[in-house]
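Duplicate of #3305? Posting structure anyway:
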């Protein structure tokens, strides 16, 4: 009788383990599929953007895991939840005291309440993505997370390069069917006011594509151990073809900061620096061959960067950039020290100031949360974002690992890009945030 009971227990444990493996496999599959869907930002189905579907998908997956498994508390998430609930309070109070519905721009594609809800869904989807990825990392799926992020990033890059030449040579390619960021219907692949034709791929703007690719670019150096990193070459070429100053300069800032934080004079770091610089030179050579110039001169990325940076550095700062209208608004409308306007409401007020028929973006995560949630919200945000960097700087053990450079670099790149481009959290940042926190925890417990 005891033998029978013992054998039944073994079978039950085996079935339980198999169930755990299945759920983990489904979770990694869901992560990969949702990342692909997230990359289809310029497309929609039945008037529902794929980007929204990916965001809802991450929330659905984390609810499923919560029901079927114990979730792990992500370090730093308490301050993120504080920001989330503070934003709800501030937004609710503002809705009660002010009629924002009447201030909605004429070309708005959604109702007021749906527009505000979307702001919170995006924040909630970021939290869900962080929890999903961190859960997978603790289930020893670090390699899979990095692998699929790099592979999907490479495929997205290949598609973007194909689209790039489809525009030039009339090759077949599906046109975006989602409204552009300016609220216009896209009838052809974009021609941007730039020195050369820019790659946008499956995104609504070249800068969105560049920002999305920064994480897979750096993670490819962890995934690919070969001297010639073909993944980084393909992704790097695509980033340059976007012509995005945000993506290019952000990546450079992140890499240099990571090298300095982990000790630039360490032999392994010097080897990494030489390897990345060497690969960058290869990317630049290929870019010069591929880039389609709008003039008779060949595209020169250094000249373009210099032309765009010089007015900012030497002629009046960011007011002289193509984001100057944001800084003029800030100078004329100082933020409230205690209480913001609420998520979404701040954009409506900004759009009203600009007399715009479409919703306008602050092009900065920091400005958005300052005007939306006040100084307290900005403090919550900064603690959440910069705390992992401080922990890395204080940990000698984690800085001994030369591979950590390729996690720190995209993380700091995003901290820089959040200042001048994106006003909301992204799924790609969720990946690198979870990886950063996981590495800190791993070395702390070792």
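Output from current build:
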């Amino acid at each position: 009788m005891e033998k029978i009971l013992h054998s039944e227990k073994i079978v039950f444990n085996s079935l339980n383990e198999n169930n755990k493996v299945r759920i983990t496999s489904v979770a990694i599959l869901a992560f990969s599929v949702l990342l692909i869907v997230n990359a289809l930002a310029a497309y929609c189905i039945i008037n529902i953007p794929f980007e929204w579907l990916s965001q809802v998908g991450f929330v659905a997956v984390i609810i499923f895991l919560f029901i079927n498994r114990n979730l792990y508390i992500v370090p730093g998430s308490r301050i993120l939840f504080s920001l989330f609930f503070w934003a709800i309070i501030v937004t609710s109070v503002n809705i009660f005291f002010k009629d924002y519905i009447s201030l909605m721009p004429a070309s708005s594609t959604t109702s007021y309440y749906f527009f505000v809800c979307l702001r919170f869904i995006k924040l909630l989807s970021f939290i869900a993505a962080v929890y999903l990825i961190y859960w997978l990392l603790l289930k020893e799926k670090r390699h899979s997370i990095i692998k699929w992020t790099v592979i999907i990033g490479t495929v997205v890059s290949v598609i973007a390069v194909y689209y790039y030449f489809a525009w030039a040579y009339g090759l077949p390619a599906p046109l975006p069917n989602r409204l552009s960021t300016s609220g216009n219907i896209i009838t052809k692949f974009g021609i941007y006011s730039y020195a050369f034709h820019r790659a946008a791929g499956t995104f609504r703007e070249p800068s969105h594509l560049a920002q999305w690719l920064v994480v897979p670019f750096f993670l490819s150096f962890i995934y690919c151990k070969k001297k010639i990193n073909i993944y980084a070459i393909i992704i790097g070429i695509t980033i340059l073809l976007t012509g995005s100053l945000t993506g290019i300069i952000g990546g450079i800032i992140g890499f240099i900061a990571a090298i300095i934080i982990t000790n630039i004079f360490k032999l392994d770091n010097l080897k990494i620096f030489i390897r990345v610089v060497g690969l960058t030179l290869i990317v630049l050579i290929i870019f010069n061959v591929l880039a389609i110039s709008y003039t008779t001169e060949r595209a020169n990325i250094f000249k373009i960067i210099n032309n765009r940076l010089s007015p900012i550095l030497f002629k009046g700062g960011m007011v002289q950039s193509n984001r100057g209208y944001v800084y003029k608004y800030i100078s004329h409308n100082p933020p409230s020290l205690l209480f913001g306007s609420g998520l979404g409401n701040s954009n409506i007020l900004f759009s009203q100031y600009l007399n715009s028929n479409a919703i306008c973006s602050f092009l900065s995560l920091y400005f958005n949360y300052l005007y939306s949630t006040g100084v307290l919200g900005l403090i919550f945000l900064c603690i959440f974002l910069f705390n992992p960097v401080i922990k890395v700087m204080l940990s000698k053990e984690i800085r001994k690992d030369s591979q950590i450079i390729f996690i720190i670099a995209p993380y700091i790149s995003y901290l820089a890009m959040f200042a001048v481009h994106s006003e909301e959290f992204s799924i790609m940042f969720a990946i690198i945030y979870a990886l950063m926190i996981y590495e800190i925890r791993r070395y702390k417990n070792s």
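Confirmed duplicate; merging threads. The chain is about 70% helix and 0% strand. The radius of gyration is 23 Å.
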